[in-house]
Design goal:
Elements lengths: L1 E11 L4 H15 L3 E8 L10 E4 L14 H11 L3 E5 L6 H9 L2 E5 L11 H8 L4 H12 L2 E4 L14 E3 L25 E6 L8 H13 L5 E6 L5 H8 L5 E5 L6 H6 L3 E3 L19 H8 L4 E4 L4 H4 L6 E4 L7 H7 L3 H18 L2 H13 L2
Parallel strand pairs: 1-2, 1-4, 2-3, 4-5, 5-6, 6-7, 8-9, 8-11, 9-10, 11-12, 12-13
Helix pairs in contact: 1-13, 2-3, 6-7, 6-11, 9-12
Length: about 375
C-alpha cells in the first residue's frame, strides 16, 4: 500500500507530542511493509533515517493557519505518487490532503486529535457566528464528511452527525522497544529522594506540574520526605512551578530533554505522574479527548501511573491494576496516592501490569496494525 501522510504543521524531528506521533505512525506503517511518504515541516536536524520518505513542506510564511494554501502543491504530489491512501492530520485550517486525494481516487483518512466542534464560549465560534454563515464550522464538517475514515481517540470531539461506521477509535502509543523497564548505567539526574515521581511534559497550565509540586510540599510538611519529584521538560508554566518549589528539597527540574533521551529519564524514576487539571483548559469541557503520550510511555517503562480519576483516564489506567487514581471514589488526593507508592512491592506489581498492558494495547505497533486493518476494510 502506498501512503501519503499530510502533516505539514508538524515539525520532524521535534520534541512535541504531535511530532512524536507523526514519526511513530509513519515508521510503524513502513515497518509493516507499506511505502510511506510524509509531508512535514523540517526540524533543525536531518530527517530520521529509515524507509520512510520524508518530504519537507512548510505552511506559507510558516503560519499554520495558511496550511490549506498548499493544496495545489499537494495535488501535484498526489498526481505524481498516485497513493492508495492519503492520511491527513486534522487541523482547523487544513484540508489539503483530503481534497487532493479525490482526483487520484485515493482512500482518505482524517486523523482527529483535537476538537472539530467548538467548546462553549469559544472565541473562534463567536467569530464564526459573526460571519453569519459560520464558514469555519462548515469547512471542518465538510472535511469530516469527505474523509472515508476518521481515526480519533474520542468521538466526543467529532461533529454529532458523523456516521459511526466511518469512525475508528484508536489511542496514541509508546515505543515499547525504547521505553522499557531497565536501569540506565548512569541516571541522568541526581535522585532527590528514595522514591521518585517523574513528570514529563510541556508545562502547560492543564498538565498539572504545579499540582505535583504542591503535593510534594504537603508531604514534606507532614514529615514524608521519602518521596520527591523530577520534572522533565519546559513550557509556559515551568517558571511558576519552579517559584512554587522554591528551595524545597526533593524536587528537580531538568529543563527540556530530547525525546531520544526520555527513556533513560523515565527508567530512572519509580512513579509516573500525570496530574492533569482539566478545568484549566476550556476545550477539555468537551471531555478528556487527549490520548496522553506521557501515560503510555510511563506504562511502557514499567512505572505505576498516578493520575486523576477523570473521564477517559479511568479507562486508560486501571486503579489498583496499572496505577493509582485519585478523586471521588478513589484515593482522596494526589499526595495520598504518591504516599502509597513508596511501597516497593506495590510499585513492582502495578508497574509490571502497566508494562504488560502498554505492550498489548498502547504500543505504536498495535496502533499501526489496527490502522491498517481499518484502511483495508474500506
Amino acid at each position: 500500500m502506498r501512503v501519503l501522510y499530510c502533516a505539514i504543521d508538524q515539525t520532524v524531528p521535534g520534541v512535541k507530542g504531535g511530532s512524536v506521533h507523526v514519526t511513530a505512525v509513519a515508521e510503524g506503517l513502513a515497518s509493516l511493509g507499506h511505502e510511506v511518504h510524509v509531508l512535514v515541516s523540517p526540524g533543525d536536524r536531518p530527517f530520521p533515517a529509515g524507509p520512510v520518505r520524508w518530504i519537507a513542506m512548510t505552511p506559507p510564511l510558516g503560519a499554520k493557519e495558511l496550511r490549506w494554501m498548499r493544496i495545489a502543491r499537494v495535488r501535484r504530489l498526489v498526481a505524481a505518487l498516485r497513493p492508495d491512501v492519503v492520511i491527513e492530520r486534522y487541523y482547523n485550517f487544513g484540508g489539503e490532503g483530503i481534497l487532493a486525494a479525490r482526483a487520484a481516487r485515493a482512500r482518505t483518512v482524517l486523523e482527529v486529535n483535537a476538537p472539530v466542534i467548538d467548546h462553549r464560549g469559544s472565541t473562534k465560534a463567536l467569530l464564526d457566528r459573526a460571519l453569519l454563515v459560520e464558514p469555519m464550522r462548515r469547512w471542518r464538517e465538510h472535511l469530516c464528511s469527505r474523509a472515508d475514515l476518521i481515526v480519533t481517540p474520542s468521538v466526543a470531539i467529532l461533529p454529532p452527525r458523523t456516521p459511526e461506521r466511518k469512525v475508528v477509535r484508536l489511542e496514541w502509543g509508546a515505543d515499547t522497544g525504547r521505553f522499557r523497564p531497565h536501569q540506565p548505567d548512569k541516571a541522568p539526574f541526581a535522585r532527590p529522594a528514595p522514591t521518585v515521581a517523574v513528570f514529563a511534559g510541556a508545562f502547560r497550565s492543564w498538565h498539572g506540574a504545579a499540582s505535583l509540586v504542591g503535593a510534594i510540599r504537603r508531604l514534606h510538611e507532614r514529615g514524608r520526605k521519602d518521596i520527591g519529584a523530577v520534572l522533565v521538560g519546559d513550557g509556559p508554566e515551568r517558571p511558576a512551578a519552579q517559584e512554587s518549589a522554591g528551595t524545597l528539597p526533593g524536587i528537580v527540574f531538568t529543563g527540556a530533554v530530547s525525546h531520544d533521551d526520555m527513556p533513560a529519564y523515565l527508567a530512572s524514576a519509580d512513579v509516573g505522574a500525570a496530574p492533569f487539571e482539566i478545568a484549566a483548559h476550556e476545550p477539555l469541557s468537551l471531555g478528556f479527548y487527549w490520548s496522553p503520550l506521557k501515560i503510555f510511555e510511563y506504562m511502557a517503562t514499567g512505572l505505576p501511573v498516578v493520575a486523576p480519576a477523570i473521564d477517559r483516564i479511568a479507562t486508560l489506567v486501571g486503579h489498583g491494576r496499572e496505577g493509582l487514581l485519585y478523586g471521588a471514589g478513589f484515593e482522596p488526593s494526589l499526595e495520598s496516592a504518591l504516599s502509597r507508592l513508596t511501597d516497593p512491592a506495590l510499585r513492582q506489581t502495578l508497574g509490571a501490569a502497566a508494562r504488560e498492558r502498554a505492550v498489548r494495547d498502547y504500543s505504536w505497533k498495535a496502533h499501526c496494525a489496527a490502522l491498517v486493518r481499518a484502511i483495508e476494510s474500506l
